[in-house]
Amino acid sequence: MEENITIYISESNKGEEQIIINKQYKFNFSHSRKDNSRVYKCTEYKKNNKCKSFIILNNGKEILKYESLHNHPGNEYSVSLSVMKHKIKDEIKKHSNPFDIKRKDYIMKFLKKWDLYILKTLILRSINKKLPSNVTTFNEIPNESEYYKTERNEDFMIFKNSDLVIFQSPFQAKLFKKYNNDIFVDGTFYIAPKFSQQVFITRTYVKELNSFYTTSYAILRNKKQKTYKMLFNKLKTKF
Questions:
Q1: What is the spatial distance between Cα 96 and Cα 130, in angstroms, rounded to a whole number?
Q2: Which helix (H) or strand (E) holds 158?
Q3: In a 3-state reduction of DSSP, which class is residue 56?
Q4: Residue 27: helix, strand or coil by DSSP?
Q5: DSSP character for 149?
Q6: In terms of DSSP bridges, do strands 54-57 and 7-11 run parallel, antiparallel, or are they unpaired?
Q7: Distances (CA, A) of 24 to 5, 37, 69
Q8: Count of C-beta atoms within a 10 Å radius of residue 189
Q9: Cβ of 47: how many Cβ atoms within 10 Å?
Q10: What is the DSSP string of 65-134?
Q11: Which residues lie closer than 8 Å to 34 by C-beta, 6 or more apart?
Q12: Are 124 and 191 within 8 A, CB to CB?
Protein backbone atom coordinates (compact mmCIF):
# COMPACT_ATOMS: atom_id res chain seq x y z
CA MET A 1 0.00 0.00 0.00
CA GLU A 2 1.38 3.40 -0.98
CA GLU A 3 2.38 5.85 1.74
CA ASN A 4 1.15 9.38 2.49
CA ILE A 5 -2.45 8.73 1.56
CA THR A 6 -4.86 11.56 2.31
CA ILE A 7 -8.51 10.63 2.74
CA TYR A 8 -11.62 12.79 2.70
CA ILE A 9 -15.19 11.65 3.44
CA SER A 10 -17.62 13.19 0.98
CA GLU A 11 -21.01 12.37 -0.52
CA SER A 12 -22.15 11.15 -3.94
CA ASN A 13 -24.93 12.77 -5.98
CA LYS A 14 -27.33 10.15 -4.61
CA GLY A 15 -26.48 11.12 -1.04
CA GLU A 16 -24.35 8.05 -0.32
CA GLU A 17 -20.93 8.07 1.34
CA GLN A 18 -18.03 8.72 -1.00
CA ILE A 19 -14.30 8.41 -0.28
CA ILE A 20 -11.79 10.75 -1.91
CA ILE A 21 -8.13 9.75 -2.04
CA ASN A 22 -5.25 12.19 -2.51
CA LYS A 23 -7.64 14.80 -3.95
CA GLN A 24 -7.64 12.89 -7.25
CA TYR A 25 -9.75 9.75 -7.07
CA LYS A 26 -13.34 9.09 -5.94
CA PHE A 27 -14.62 5.81 -4.47
CA ASN A 28 -18.26 4.90 -3.93
CA PHE A 29 -19.49 2.40 -1.34
CA SER A 30 -19.73 -1.15 -2.70
CA HIS A 31 -20.47 -3.53 0.19
CA SER A 32 -19.77 -4.39 3.83
CA ARG A 33 -17.71 -7.41 4.90
CA LYS A 34 -18.37 -9.80 7.79
CA ASP A 35 -15.99 -7.87 10.05
CA ASN A 36 -18.08 -4.70 9.38
CA SER A 37 -15.29 -3.15 7.32
CA ARG A 38 -16.52 -1.34 4.20
CA VAL A 39 -15.34 -1.75 0.61
CA TYR A 40 -15.36 1.19 -1.80
CA LYS A 41 -14.74 0.92 -5.54
CA CYS A 42 -13.33 3.58 -7.87
CA THR A 43 -16.11 5.56 -9.55
CA GLU A 44 -14.60 4.61 -12.92
CA TYR A 45 -15.40 0.95 -12.19
CA LYS A 46 -18.74 1.04 -14.05
CA LYS A 47 -17.51 3.33 -16.82
CA ASN A 48 -15.46 2.64 -19.92
CA ASN A 49 -12.22 2.43 -17.95
CA LYS A 50 -13.50 -0.48 -15.78
CA CYS A 51 -11.01 0.58 -13.12
CA LYS A 52 -10.33 -2.18 -10.57
CA SER A 53 -9.01 0.04 -7.79
CA PHE A 54 -10.66 -0.30 -4.40
CA ILE A 55 -10.17 0.70 -0.79
CA ILE A 56 -11.25 -0.98 2.47
CA LEU A 57 -11.94 1.05 5.63
CA ASN A 58 -12.77 -0.01 9.18
CA ASN A 59 -15.47 1.60 11.35
CA GLY A 60 -13.04 4.33 12.33
CA LYS A 61 -12.45 5.21 8.67
CA GLU A 62 -8.90 3.88 8.90
CA ILE A 63 -7.44 2.34 5.76
CA LEU A 64 -7.11 -1.44 5.95
CA LYS A 65 -6.22 -1.96 2.32
CA TYR A 66 -5.82 0.23 -0.76
CA GLU A 67 -5.33 -1.30 -4.19
CA SER A 68 -4.21 1.57 -6.40
CA LEU A 69 -4.74 -0.01 -9.80
CA HIS A 70 -6.03 3.07 -11.58
CA ASN A 71 -5.92 2.82 -15.37
CA HIS A 72 -6.93 6.46 -15.79
CA PRO A 73 -5.48 9.80 -14.64
CA GLY A 74 -6.72 11.51 -11.50
CA ASN A 75 -9.23 14.32 -11.93
CA GLU A 76 -8.61 17.09 -9.42
CA TYR A 77 -11.35 19.32 -10.85
CA SER A 78 -14.06 16.67 -10.61
CA VAL A 79 -12.91 15.71 -7.12
CA SER A 80 -12.79 19.29 -5.86
CA LEU A 81 -16.27 19.89 -7.30
CA SER A 82 -17.59 16.89 -5.34
CA VAL A 83 -15.97 18.21 -2.16
CA MET A 84 -17.53 21.63 -2.69
CA LYS A 85 -20.97 20.08 -3.24
CA HIS A 86 -20.58 18.19 0.01
CA LYS A 87 -19.54 21.29 1.95
CA ILE A 88 -22.45 23.34 0.57
CA LYS A 89 -24.93 20.57 1.42
CA ASP A 90 -23.55 20.35 4.96
CA GLU A 91 -23.89 24.09 5.44
CA ILE A 92 -27.48 24.08 4.16
CA LYS A 93 -28.45 21.08 6.31
CA LYS A 94 -27.71 23.17 9.39
CA HIS A 95 -30.79 25.28 8.63
CA SER A 96 -34.10 23.99 9.90
CA ASN A 97 -36.00 26.10 7.36
CA PRO A 98 -34.58 26.18 3.79
CA PHE A 99 -36.73 29.22 2.96
CA ASP A 100 -34.62 31.29 5.37
CA ILE A 101 -31.37 30.52 3.57
CA LYS A 102 -29.60 33.56 2.12
CA ARG A 103 -27.85 32.40 -1.02
CA LYS A 104 -25.63 35.48 -1.14
CA ASP A 105 -23.94 34.46 2.13
CA TYR A 106 -22.90 31.11 0.66
CA ILE A 107 -21.77 32.64 -2.62
CA MET A 108 -19.47 35.06 -0.83
CA LYS A 109 -18.14 32.28 1.41
CA PHE A 110 -17.02 30.03 -1.45
CA LEU A 111 -16.52 32.59 -4.23
CA LYS A 112 -12.73 32.74 -3.89
CA LYS A 113 -12.42 29.15 -5.05
CA TRP A 114 -15.27 28.74 -7.52
CA ASP A 115 -16.86 30.27 -10.58
CA LEU A 116 -19.98 32.31 -9.73
CA TYR A 117 -22.28 30.36 -12.06
CA ILE A 118 -21.18 26.98 -10.67
CA LEU A 119 -21.71 28.21 -7.12
CA LYS A 120 -25.21 29.53 -7.82
CA THR A 121 -26.17 26.24 -9.47
CA LEU A 122 -24.81 24.07 -6.65
CA ILE A 123 -26.44 26.15 -3.93
CA LEU A 124 -29.83 26.34 -5.67
CA ARG A 125 -29.92 22.57 -6.30
CA SER A 126 -28.95 21.84 -2.70
CA ILE A 127 -31.65 24.15 -1.34
CA ASN A 128 -34.31 22.68 -3.65
CA LYS A 129 -33.44 19.15 -2.52
CA LYS A 130 -34.01 20.18 1.09
CA LEU A 131 -37.43 21.70 0.45
CA PRO A 132 -40.20 19.67 2.11
CA SER A 133 -42.32 17.37 -0.05
CA ASN A 134 -45.51 15.41 0.58
CA VAL A 135 -44.31 12.70 -1.82
CA THR A 136 -41.84 10.24 -0.30
CA THR A 137 -42.33 7.15 -2.51
CA PHE A 138 -42.94 6.57 -6.20
CA ASN A 139 -46.42 5.20 -5.55
CA GLU A 140 -47.37 8.42 -3.77
CA ILE A 141 -47.01 10.48 -6.96
CA PRO A 142 -50.61 11.69 -7.48
CA ASN A 143 -52.63 10.83 -10.56
CA GLU A 144 -54.08 14.33 -10.61
CA SER A 145 -52.56 17.62 -9.54
CA GLU A 146 -52.79 21.34 -10.30
CA TYR A 147 -49.15 21.09 -11.34
CA TYR A 148 -50.11 18.76 -14.18
CA LYS A 149 -51.73 21.65 -16.04
CA THR A 150 -50.04 24.22 -18.28
CA GLU A 151 -50.86 27.94 -18.18
CA ARG A 152 -53.40 27.19 -20.93
CA ASN A 153 -55.00 24.57 -18.69
CA GLU A 154 -53.73 21.76 -20.91
CA ASP A 155 -52.76 18.35 -19.52
CA PHE A 156 -49.02 18.05 -18.91
CA MET A 157 -48.84 14.53 -17.46
CA ILE A 158 -49.69 12.05 -20.22
CA PHE A 159 -48.90 8.69 -18.61
CA LYS A 160 -48.25 7.07 -15.22
CA ASN A 161 -47.73 3.51 -14.02
CA SER A 162 -45.75 1.88 -11.20
CA ASP A 163 -42.39 2.45 -12.94
CA LEU A 164 -42.79 5.58 -14.99
CA VAL A 165 -44.33 9.05 -15.12
CA ILE A 166 -44.24 11.01 -18.40
CA PHE A 167 -44.79 14.74 -18.76
CA GLN A 168 -45.38 16.33 -22.17
CA SER A 169 -47.38 19.40 -23.17
CA PRO A 170 -49.42 19.46 -26.41
CA PHE A 171 -46.83 21.82 -27.92
CA GLN A 172 -44.01 19.44 -27.01
CA ALA A 173 -46.00 16.57 -28.53
CA LYS A 174 -46.28 18.51 -31.81
CA LEU A 175 -42.54 19.08 -31.90
CA PHE A 176 -41.86 15.42 -31.10
CA LYS A 177 -44.20 14.35 -33.91
CA LYS A 178 -42.87 16.74 -36.57
CA TYR A 179 -39.14 16.57 -35.80
CA ASN A 180 -38.48 12.94 -34.88
CA ASN A 181 -35.80 11.96 -37.39
CA ASP A 182 -33.16 12.64 -34.73
CA ILE A 183 -34.10 12.40 -31.06
CA PHE A 184 -31.60 13.40 -28.40
CA VAL A 185 -31.98 11.96 -24.92
CA ASP A 186 -30.40 12.53 -21.54
CA GLY A 187 -30.82 10.55 -18.34
CA THR A 188 -29.76 12.56 -15.32
CA PHE A 189 -29.45 11.17 -11.81
CA TYR A 190 -28.45 14.33 -9.94
CA ILE A 191 -31.90 15.97 -9.99
CA ALA A 192 -33.87 12.72 -9.68
CA PRO A 193 -36.12 12.41 -6.60
CA LYS A 194 -34.68 10.09 -3.95
CA PHE A 195 -37.42 7.52 -4.53
CA SER A 196 -36.57 7.23 -8.26
CA GLN A 197 -33.58 6.27 -10.41
CA GLN A 198 -33.42 9.09 -12.93
CA VAL A 199 -35.08 11.96 -14.76
CA PHE A 200 -35.20 11.16 -18.48
CA ILE A 201 -35.41 14.01 -21.02
CA THR A 202 -35.98 13.93 -24.79
CA ARG A 203 -34.99 16.79 -27.08
CA THR A 204 -35.31 17.46 -30.80
CA TYR A 205 -33.62 19.80 -33.25
CA VAL A 206 -35.83 22.32 -35.09
CA LYS A 207 -33.93 23.15 -38.25
CA GLU A 208 -35.97 26.22 -39.16
CA LEU A 209 -35.10 27.88 -35.86
CA ASN A 210 -31.63 26.35 -35.55
CA SER A 211 -32.43 25.40 -31.94
CA PHE A 212 -32.96 22.40 -29.71
CA TYR A 213 -36.24 21.99 -27.83
CA THR A 214 -37.14 19.72 -24.94
CA THR A 215 -40.03 17.47 -25.99
CA SER A 216 -40.71 15.42 -22.84
CA TYR A 217 -39.74 14.77 -19.23
CA ALA A 218 -40.06 11.48 -17.39
CA ILE A 219 -39.34 10.16 -13.91
CA LEU A 220 -38.13 6.56 -13.96
CA ARG A 221 -38.27 4.22 -11.00
CA ASN A 222 -35.68 1.88 -12.51
CA LYS A 223 -33.35 1.48 -15.49
CA LYS A 224 -34.92 -1.67 -16.95
CA GLN A 225 -35.19 -2.10 -20.69
CA LYS A 226 -38.97 -2.60 -20.49
CA THR A 227 -39.32 0.77 -18.79
CA TYR A 228 -37.51 2.56 -21.60
CA LYS A 229 -39.59 0.68 -24.19
CA MET A 230 -42.77 1.73 -22.43
CA LEU A 231 -41.56 5.33 -22.37
CA PHE A 232 -40.97 5.55 -26.12
CA ASN A 233 -44.07 3.54 -26.99
CA LYS A 234 -46.21 6.02 -25.07
CA LEU A 235 -44.51 8.98 -26.71
CA LYS A 236 -45.05 7.45 -30.15
CA THR A 237 -48.77 6.93 -29.51
CA LYS A 238 -49.09 10.72 -29.29
CA PHE A 239 -48.29 10.94 -33.03
A1: 10
A2: strand 157-160
A3: strand
A4: strand
A5: B
A6: unpaired
A7: 11, 23, 13
A8: 13
A9: 10
A10: EEE---SS---HHHHHHHHHHHHHHHHHHT-S-GGG--HHHHHHHHTTTS-HHHHHHHHHHHHHHHS--S
A11: none
A12: no
Cα-Cα-Cα-Cα torsion 83, 65, 50, 14, nearest 10 degrees, comes to -40
Question: 199 by DSSP, 3-state: which?
Answer: strand
d(CA 80, CA 114): 10
Taking the mean position of all CA atoms in its chain, how far away is CA 131?
16
DSSP assigned state of 139: G
Residue type for position 234: K
Question: Are the C-beta atoms of 228 and 148 separated by less than 8 Å?
Answer: no
Between CA 200 and CA 219 the distance in angstroms is 6
Q: DSSP state, 160?
A: E
Helix, strand, or coil here: 230?
A: helix
What span, in angstroms and rounded, lies between the C-alpha atoms of 164 and 221?
Answer: 6
* Tens-binned pLDDT, residue by residue, of the chain (239 aa): 556 788 888 878 777 888 888 888 999 999 999 999 999 999 888 887 789 999 999 988 889 999 988 888 887 767 777 777 777 666 666 665 555 555 555 555 554 555 554 555 555 665 555 545 677 788 888 888 887 888 788 888 889 999 999 999 998 998 898 888 888 999 888 778 878 889 999 999 888 878 889 999 999 999 999 999 999 999 988 65
Query: Which residues lie closer than 8 Å to 12 by C-beta, 6 or more apart?
Result: 18, 28, 82
**Number of helices followed by number of strands (H, E) in the chain:** 5, 11
Q: State the amino acid at position 132 in one-letter form.
A: P
Give the pairing of strands 7-11 and 17-21: antiparallel
